[in-house]
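Notes to self, Polyamine aminopropyltransferase:
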Amino acid sequence: MIEPHAPAPPGTAPPRGGCARLPVRPATGRFLVLAGVFVCAACGLVYELELVALASYLIGDSVTQASVVLSVMVFAMGIGSLFAKRLRPLAAAGFGAVEAVLALVGGCSALALYAVFAWTGDWGGMWANGPRCLLVAFSLTIGLLIGAEVPLLMELIQRIRRQDAGGAVADLFAADYVGALVGGLAFPFLLLPLLGQLTATLITGAVNAVAGGALVLGLFRGDLTRRARWLLVIANVTVLGVLAAAAVLVDDFERAARHAVYGRDVRVALQTDVQEVVITGGTNGRPLDLFLDGRLRVSGRDERRYHEALVHPAMSGEHRRVLILGGGSGLAAREVLRYPGVHRVDVVEADAGVVRLARRDPPLSKLNRHAYDDHRVHVMTGDAFRRLRAAAPATYDVVISDLPDPGITASTKLYSQEFYGLARRALTPRGRLAVHAGPVSSRPRLFWTVDTTLRAAGLRTAPYCVRGRESGFAPGPDRTAGPTRAPHDWGFILARRGERPVLRLGAGERVPRLGTLTQEGLVADAWVAEGTRVGGLGVSTLMHPRY
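result:
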């Protein structure tokens, strides 16, 4: 057994390689260090997941955002480990300082990113690089600080009791990985649903500060000078004070940020099991706007134009049984129910909270003409892909795909060849499928990829669009910064088995009186869409998404 070194003179750090002066037995000290590793690792992973979740929510395209955040963070961890080598002679003070800074930066990261998003209007336009650079800066900083932890902890655990490097590394990594597991599971299943993203991150920062400060000041205070101890105490108290103040004010902050994003006319703001739902307007003559996860999905200014174009071309022909995928607002069902020949409408919506609002919110239920009160409408909550797999062959005369744009990662599988193959199976021999395929003029490759994928699934297609939209209703993967950046059209594709579908209104049954859609306008806009055709595009599949 290696004998301990002579105690260092008062006010100085012990020599490197010596054993620390501990207030507890070495075995207890070793356990406390590993417990600290466990807690700090859990906090570090929460910071990573918080950045990924917030970036995906604010920017869109979760695969890209996760790749950017995690790759930058892992790279920074390696750089942080290299820099931490210089701090090893002052491992206790260095670790205490690293944890205080990490708690402050990680705990406040969600607040800072959301504030930039809310008060600069968007991640696009003149601010396109600023907020994204801020996201990378947070990922880089947090990664540097996390990477600095392990070399310093390695030094501290060796000061308790010298052992071979392999055994010390194995112990540290075991505690680190188990802590990461707990943090990774706690974030989606505990912290996020119970506390929300902002409060959860602030509390994680506080736990991080307490764990790091307690480990150094409680166990390794003999390694610190009197001045270093006081500086570390002041730093941790300051960090905890900032985090506590932010936690107290977080509700006011969220309210102010929500008003900055959506305007002052917010009537409903709730977090369902699936997404954030916000409704503005709908009273005193103001048009109703419905936002899902920050994206404008229903605008009272032009929703009628959109839903007429989506539904009515597909209703030309037999339409006794209709399936609507998405469309929880009830507005697509409203248009379908205008046909007396409809006997049954099945609505598949992933978020039961949206359906509840469409039933109970007076302005929204008025807008959908109380569609969910009609006995012909049946709601099925769940994933559209899974529901199509469970549908019996040749069940529906019409399938209407009223889903978010394929550029949003969560929607990619719902625009795949496999998905359209299931839709084809669910259609009767002369059934029609109508697909909302994103804007034509601003994202033609995305639109024509949908067309290519539908044809690969064995369907014949008739692409068309509707121009003259007034708002950013149903945007793509990026949240729009206002009407100036909103696409100027909606793109749709009508598909069927066998022969190519014909774009027409009212074959076999009188068309209900429409507000904006005419046969002449439908044909003219279809020619406009055809003029944007992009050839040579690949088919989007589950294993090779193209959007």
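- The two ends are 63 Å apart (CA to CA).
- The CA atoms of residues 198 and 375 lie 42 Å apart.
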